[in-house]
Structure formats: structure tokens, C-alpha cells
Amino acid sequence: MLLSGIFAPITTPFYPHGEVYYKKLESNVERYSRTPIAGIVVQGSTGEAILLSDQERRDVLKAVLSAAAPDKVMIAGTGVESAHETLCLTEYAAQLGYDAALVRTPHYYKKQMLPANLLAFYRTVADRSALPIIIYNFPQATGYDLPAEIVIELASHPNIVAIKESSGNLDKVKAMVEGTRHVKRQVTVTETFDAVTPRMLKAAAAKSEKQSRELVSVATLAGTAESSDRKDAAPKPSSSAVTVVGKLKTRQKEVGFQVMVGAAHQLEPSLGLGAVGAILAFASPAPMACYEIYAALKDGNAALAREKQERVKGAAQRVVGELGVPGVKYSMDLNGYYGGPARLPFLPLSGEQKAEIEKLMAGIRS
What we know:
three-stranded antiparallel beta sheet; 11 strands; single chain; 13 helices
């Protein structure tokens, strides 16, 4: 599965009394779907997943998928401390139709989180998961930093396709990119090299079949059912490299183990070191500002990418890195999304903090 581009790890909206505000969640998702981000991550750290009940996690996963555009790659955060519970939530996400699972490192029993434990945990989950697995390393929250050597070893597992590396350690990003160059896989992409997932292929095939049934029915009623003369017959591939599923033209592309990062203030240098994309909390209030950095580099304009990076660097560091989820949510409120309150133990922002965010976000609209 291709994971290049910018992904928004969306927040979970709440009413003032603390219940999940599903209508606002769906509204946010519909708006993200109209941006050029590659996909949406549900129930990551920014989504306060650790503060939700198991039923709430499941309900949020279901609500988001129903509201998202069909061409967005959908990633479910399913990491729980035990392999057993992680697999249970991953199986539910697979049944809903998610494209991949983001699995954070177990960390509560830190002294026992030795290489053998982590290797066994991720291999067990990957062996039994119906979804491709993305490792999630976020030491600022977990207090445990997954060593690059373990990531490199896990990268050879056929169902472990990527890592979200949120440590902010550029040397580690470089080490993982270089240490996994031997991994080569074939993935399905569109004719223009955008991501295609089994869910997208299934939807395209189902739509094509439905249209074919309708056309045959109309032709039969009209007495012109000769399929050989139909102008609406499925188009033939334009070349041997292209496969057509309904109206979706696909081809194969070789990718390696995909390193994604989680620090917006370091996006440009991370991409320069070989990261293929990013899952950025700052993309929740500012998806376009994050995408513009990626797009500039993809177009070969390094100077513009650095300029765009400097524009968001200070805001991303302060809002995401220091003020956290409440800061992200208030920034969303400023940019037309619904952020709203966070759950305890998060506290509301002070008036001074809100004024600071307003100043930082003044030139960053999305």
C-alpha cells in the first residue's frame, strides 16, 4: 500500500459535558475529504484514543469511515497494550473497511519492553492482522523510544509496511531509511501514481457491476442488448502496464519500507532524508499548510519547501509540541473546523494561551 503524502490524525470532538459529538466529527471529516491530504488517521494520539472507552473507539471508527471520501486512505489507530486487544480492535477496523492499522508501541511495563518483547508483539499482530500494520513510535507520550534496529528488523515482515516516527530524531529517520533499503514491494496505484487500496478496488468493481446491470436492463427493454455494439463497454487498458477496474485505472509501483514522520516542524528535512510522508497533528487545523511543504518538494522546489516550512515551524512546535491536544483543538476552531473541549486530565486553555495561538495561527489558514 502506498502511504506517501500528508495524513491528518484527526481529533475526537466532544460536547461540553464530555460525550462524543458525532455530528461535528462527521462534519470535520467531510471537510478534510475536500483537501489534498492523502488520508485520515482515526484514533491516534491526537484523537485522545487512550481517553475513550472501547465502545467509543469503535463508534468513532465507524462514524469516520462513513463520512470520508472514498479516495482517501483510511488508517485506524488500533494499538492497545496487549497484542490480544490490539488484534481485536484491528479485526473490527478491518471488518469496517479500513485500509491499514496504526499500532503504537506497548510501553506500560517499560522494563520488560526488551527487543525480544517488541519483536514478538509486532510480529504476532502482523501475522494475524487482516490489515497492513504501521508501527507507531511516540516516545514523548509513551516514555519508550523504539530503537531503529528493531524497526529495521521488523521492516522485513510482509505485513509491516511503514512506521510513523514521532520522536523528532532526524538521525534516526535517516538510519531507518538507509537500513530498510533492501525491502522492495509491489503496490497498486492509480494511473497517476496515487494510492489504491483493496477497499477502493472493491468499491470501483461494485460500482461498475451496478452500472452494467442497469445498462443491460435498459438495453433489454429497448431491444438493443447486443453487448458487442455497446459504446459504454468497459474501457480497455491503455497499455499492458495498466489494469482497469470499473473506471479506476491502476498500475503497479515498487516501494520500500515507508518511513513517515510525525513532527510538522521538521517535515521538510525529514522528507529530504527519505521519509515518504507524514502523519501530522498540525494537519488537523492546517492541512493545506502541511501539504504545501510536501507538494513543493515533490515538484522539485526545495527553496519554496523551506519557505513553507519556516512559515509553520514556530506554530507547530508551540501548538502541538507544547500545548498538545487542547492547543490543536483551539487552532481548529480558528480555522473553521470544530475543535471544542478536550477530556480531563486535559485542562481548558487560559485566555493568554488562546491569544498566543491566535497570533501564531494568524497567517496559517486552511
